[in-house]
């Protein structure tokens, strides 16, 4: 049993000083909380490049922290939940991004003053939607979105649980009616329901409804 614990702890630390490869380049992560926003930039995908161009964003993906690592509870990894092309909504270790800095860069924001009740509702919404399908990206369609700005809006509106749409819906559905305006990350003339469909990682990154705690862009 002791040997198993030592092995798990070693896996958890990743290396002797407890820093992942990405942290050695960008600095150590802050202590995470449930429902923190994890922004991702994929450096080696032309499709993701087109997505960033069409949405005017440094980031092309977003995930949410589902459970934080806690050695006292034998939780050896931070777990995130994300809508992933083409599989749908899945749960992964944050190490997925931290261990491959040549391919990925991450930033982190936090929605301030979240009550425990709203956090629990966000978590419940996410878990209830595990395995929900993801609208498959199209290289040609996102190339067109770079040429015609209006087409980018149409394309985003057709997605079923894009990564950022999933995050926006989770917060919107978790809040009470009188609080929902505090969790709409995109400013626009459209209705809140329509905004949930077209919210992008860039919208959430630029929103003053959340605050940067790591690698602001």
Topology:
Layout (H helix, E strand, L loop, with lengths): L1 H12 L7 H6 L10 E6 L3 H10 L5 E7 L11 E6 L3 E6 L1 H4 L5 E7 L5 H13 L10 H9 L1 H9 L5 H12 L17 H7 L2 H6 L4 E4 L3
Antiparallel strand pairs: 1-2, 1-5, 2-3, 3-4, 5-6
Helix pairs in contact: 3-6, 5-8, 6-7
Gap from first CA to last CA? 44 Å
Fraction of residues in H or I helices: 40-55%
SSE series:
HHEHEEEHEHHHHHHE
Radius of gyration: 18 Å
Shape: globular
Q: Specify the CATH architecture.
A: Alpha-Beta Complex
Number of DSSP-assigned strands: 6
The class by helix and strand makeup works out as alpha+beta
Helical stretch tally:
10
Describe the structure.
- The protein has ten helices and six strands, in the order H-H-E-H-E-E-E-H-E-H-H-H-H-H-H-E.
- Helix 3 packs parallel to helix 6 and helix 5 packs across helix 8.
- Strand 3 and strand 4 form a beta hairpin.
- A six-stranded antiparallel beta sheet has the order 4-3-2-1-5-6.
- Helices cover 41% and strands 17% of the residues.
- It is of the alpha+beta class.
- The chain has a single domain, classed as endopeptidase fold (from Nostoc punctiforme), CATH 3.90.1720.10.
